[in-house]
């Protein structure tokens, strides 16, 4: 199937373009971006021009930041195209619900992709936790914003999510592997005084049997930490390296896996399956928790952030 990529920036170049190139299902047939192009691929700066020029391209994958995403997705859906959304699927929950209704109306596939859910050991973690009684659950997601988001002003603006941009990846894994629902009870958001979005967050959640705490921080230099630890009455599970590694009671499970390898190829395999079946996958659970944190969170101002 032919596919068009919209927003040729960091994640499109790092992951989408190589994953599409390696996929047996997809051919990159066009790009839409004001500044970016992919060698040998028809390039447009306006989505409307691409949609008009290429009625044969039935699928559009959106890699722009969250705020501009709704208008582009709605335009593609109204033009009868299937749409894949980078995470988070939008800037607000309501616009995501509107998009889903629009996709149903136009009978097209809409896929809210969560790349971290495709990390190698997430399914094994989910299977192990399915019949365990949880007593404590902690998420530690600490990384260096300057390393992963160089020069990206949008992440500090309203709708950019700040540290919840990576934090929502943790939440996408949590909402996939936990058998019981959780809901936020308290949060602290540390917001640089020259920014609109937090650089750090501490979250506490209610769970039927366990204490659940999460820490997201964008100020970690050196080694990066993307870890989930689940203590249960039958042992302790650790998901490390963003879900690429799994330990049960300290013993490594499965093969060594590169932290990111495989996530995006699996997303594009999922997309092919959804389009073939005419299905919608629009799970907004990770985004609900982020919205709750912005609703309930106590804000504390911290020192200004400069690149
Ligand atoms: P990015 O490089 O800053 O932006 C992607 C592209 O979107 C830009 O190159 C730009 O292309 C276009 N764009 C930016 N602002 C726009 C606007 N206001 N209107 C229309 N187009 C705009 O961002 P990114 O890191 O690739 O992230 C994009 C999405 O992928 C985000 O939702 C992010 O959470 C997600 N993601 C990022 C990473 C990562 O490691 N960076 C990992 C996983 C997921 P043109 O200027 O050429 O139009």
From TrEMBL:
Name of a matching Pfam family: GFO_IDH_MocA
Classification via PANTHER family: BCDNA.GH03377 (PTHR43818), DEHYDROGENASE (PTHR43818:SF7)
UniProt-listed Gene3D superfamilies: Dihydrodipicolinate Reductase, domain 2 (3.30.360.10), NAD(P)-binding Rossmann-like Domain (3.40.50.720)
Transmembrane region(s): none
InterPro entries assigned to the protein according to its UniProt record, in alphabetical order: Gfo/Idh/MocA-like_OxRdtase_N (IPR000683), Gfo/Idh/MocA_oxidrdct_glycsds (IPR050463), NAD(P)-bd_dom_sf (IPR036291)
Domain Gfo/Idh/MocA-like oxidoreductase N-terminal per the UniProt entry, residue ranges: 2-111
The protein's name in its UniProt record: D-galactose 1-dehydrogenase
Example GO molecular function: nucleotide binding
Superkingdom of the source species: Bacteria
């Amino acid at each position: 199937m032919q596919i068009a990529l919209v927003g040729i920036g960091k994640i499109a170049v790092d992951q989408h373009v190589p994953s599409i190139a390696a996929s047996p299902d997809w051919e990159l047939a066009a790009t839409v971006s004001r500044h970016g192009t992919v060698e040998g691929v028809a390039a447009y700066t306006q989505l409307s021009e691409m949609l008009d020029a290429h009625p044969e391209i039935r699928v559009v994958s959106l890699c722009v930041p969250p705020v501009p995403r709704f208008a582009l997705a709605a335009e593609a859906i109204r033009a009868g195209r299937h749409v894949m959304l980078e995470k988070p699927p939008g800037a607000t929950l309501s616009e995501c619900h509107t998009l889903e209704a629009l996709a149903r109306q136009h009978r097209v596939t809409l896929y809210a992709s969560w790349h971290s859910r495709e990390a190698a050991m997430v399914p094994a973690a989910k299977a192990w936790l399915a019949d365990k009684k949880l007593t404590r659950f902690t998420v530690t997601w600490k990384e260096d914003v300057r390393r992963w988001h160089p020069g990206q002003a949008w992440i500090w603006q309203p709708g950019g999510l700040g540290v919840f941009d990576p934090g929502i990846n943790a939440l996408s894994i949590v909402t996939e592997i936990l058998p019981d629902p959780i809901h936020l009870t308290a949060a602290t958001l540390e917001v640089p005084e020259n920014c609109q979005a937090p650089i750090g967050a501490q979250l506490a959640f209610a769970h039927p049997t366990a204490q659940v705490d999460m820490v997201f921080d964008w100020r970690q230099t050196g080694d990066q930490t993307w870890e989930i630890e689940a203590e249960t009455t039958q042992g302790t599970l650790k998901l490390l390296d963003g879900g690429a590694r799994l330990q049960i009671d300290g013993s490594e499970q499965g093969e060594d896996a590169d932290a990111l390898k495989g996530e995006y190829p699996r997303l594009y395999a999922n997309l092919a399956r959804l389009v073939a079946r005419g299905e919608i996958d629009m799970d907004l659970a990770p985004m609900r928790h982020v919205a709750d944190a912005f609703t309930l969170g106590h804000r504390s101002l911290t020192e200004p952030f400069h690149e």
